[in-house]
Amino acid sequence: MSYVPLLKEMHRSDTSLLSKLAQEFTTARPFPHLVIDGMFSHALLNEALQAFNLDHVNNINVFQNQLQSKRSTSTKSVMPAAIQQYFDIVNSAPFLRLLTRLTGITNLLPDPYFYGGGMHEVAGEGHFQVHTDFRHHPHTYLENRLVLLTYLNHDWKPEYGGLLELWQKNPPQPVRKIVPRFGRSVLMLQSPDSWHGHPQATQAGHVRRTLITYFYTAPKIKTSRAAQNTTYLSNNRQSTMQIAEIFIRNIMPHFIIDTARWVRHRKHKQNFK
């Protein structure tokens, strides 16, 4: 995808850049994370910024209390087309494979409803005190594993406030502060130790805009081997060969079926060499 230059690295023989980023993610303090400038093309993000207007979006969440002051979209919001394009990209299979390469977390799943994510805007001395995010999606019950933030703030300076702070718990203090500059993406592991926020209020007259996406994995549960296969129903409209194959599938040990599939797949690949 031309909108995500880093995806090209997935198809190159030299993947040293991806290995370097993966190492940075694993060893980052105070918890695994990555800060990447230019992860997405400026063309994509400029279009998203032009369309970023929460006053024109339905079902807006407004958080106004002592711990946070911001606005965001909800699971019922209809995103502007240019912003939906960004989310379509980050929720796609190629992008999920890239995240697996960077973090080592396999079988990642997106949330097309953007619970807790979507468009976030902080203005008028808004803030978000240091916190950890929800551990499980309240509707799908999937486990929250990663969050990706992409900033849309041109020429943002540290003195404007609103810096993303990554904290350690003991003793409680910030370990890293990240300026939310335009085109900067932050990928963070989600865990009970992933303390973060922007407790320093944004300066009056400046608006801090962010696109946020969460990624999940299914809870680990044990299922029978039979439950992982397609099950066929015999009936009088089938041929004798079809009924025989269904019978064989039902009684034959699964390791034999898997071996036969592997041999067939290998033979198919050799025929196309």
Automatic annotation (TrEMBL):
Domain of life: Bacteria
Residues covered by the Prolyl 4-hydroxylase alpha subunit Fe(2+) 2OG dioxygenase domain: 121-216
Protein name: 2OG-Fe(II) oxygenase
Lineage: Bacteria, Pseudomonadati, Pseudomonadota, Alphaproteobacteria, Acetobacterales
